[in-house]
Amino acid sequence: MSKWKDLGTLLMEYGLINIDALNEALKLQGETGLRLGEALVKLGKVSMEDIDWVLSKQLDIPYVIVDDINVNIELLGKFPKEFLIENRVLPLYEADDQVSIVIEDPFNKSAIAFIEDSSGRKVSLSTGSGSKIEELLKQTFKKVGLPELIDAIKTTIEKIKETSFYRIDFILAEHSCEINVFGSGILKQLTEIKGHFTDEDIFSAFDDLGIHFLYEESFNNNRRFVAVFPLENRIDIRKMPAIVGGYGLFLPEGNIFSDARVYGLLNVFPLSEPIHGYPYLATKDRQSSFEKFIYVIDAAPAEFRDYYVNTYMPGKCPSCNGSGCHICRDLGYEFKKIEGIYSSDYINQCRREDHHG
Fold first, then answer.
1. pTM, to two decimals
2. Which alpha helices (H) appear in the chain, and where do they start and end?
3. What confidence tens digit (pLDDT) does each residue in 260-301 have?
4. How far apart (Å, rounded) are the C-alpha atoms in residues 323 and 320?
């Protein structure tokens, strides 16, 4: 390795800056506390690619053109997504005793040590454009993670059709996405996907499946909760008020109002109060009876008479007694369709019978 020289001297030796540019950057560095390279980039004297290239020469390590890299998806999955993006480090390939990486900052000793500890191999170091490393990582993770999320949602939908589960819940933690379903008072955990996902990833997945939905969001203990009410099935609501419960609430005709946010449909409007003359879908609010209310079964009034009901009522699967088997699609329940004009007394009786098997 050649004798160490400071960054300013190196940039001048390679003809990338002159002494006036260096002095201007040093002045800015003194005023702002920026590193010299950051000051030069801020002034427009050099690019980060110029600095990365010069450092590779100083350290006698390869400089990699990130645009030309074929990403090793399997190797990428061995390290935390957030760590790679934050440190702008891209694993290239691994051999018996070493793992090759390209990193923006070759002096990032903690990141290099983490790679060595995680892989159990020595690091073979190269450097490259940090912004391009970050962009490539984000694009790659989006392509890798989103199909897995889409498949999980698609599988969930197939599993809960013709059941009382009308809501799909996503619990987003730093390194995982838990998928549960809810309906008729039952919360069922279905699956968990490893990786970092956002609410926008969930929306994109439903877009890919061509499903519009209502949704609610909250955030607690560093986890985001997204409850999705798919609008999938068209049902003939014969009388208002109505109570529905089953996968896919309904696809509305004309204007309708909701107490949840709306994604994908122009004729559904989020609203906290019903408007006379228009249907109103209540997914969570137990408001007083109204002539054009459409409730999900869990938000229906405690006492009602002569409501149109179109729902599924759950009962423990007799084959597995609720533990889950192939007959009940591992849900632990079988489901009976109810459609007609009913009162709360009848629905509550069905619930009691189903609860006691």
1. 0.63
2. 7-13, 19-32, 36-42, 48-59, 73-76, 81-87, 109-119, 130-160, 199-209, 344-355
3. 999 988 888 888 788 888 889 888 876 767 788 989 888 888
4. 5
Residues 37, 94, single domain; the answer is no
Q: For 323, which DSSP code?
A: S
The mean pLDDT of 98-118, rounded to a whole number, is 89
**Is 85 inside any structural domain?**
yes
Residue 55 resides in a domain: no
Say which range, 48-57, 165-174, 213-222, has the weakest mean pLDDT.
Answer: 48-57
Domain that holds residue 78: 61-139
Domains in the chain, number: 4
Q: By CB neighbour count within 10 A (0-12 exposed, 13-18 middle, 19+ buried), where does 117 fall?
A: exposed
Does 85 lie in the same domain as 44?
Answer: no
Percentage of the chain exceeding pLDDT 70: 95
| C-beta of residue 304 within 8 angstroms of C-beta of residue 343 | yes
CA atoms within 13 A on the CB side of 95: 7
Neighbouring residues of 16: CB distance < 8 A, sequence distance ≥ 6: 45, 46, 50, 54
- The pLDDT value recorded for residue 357 is 47
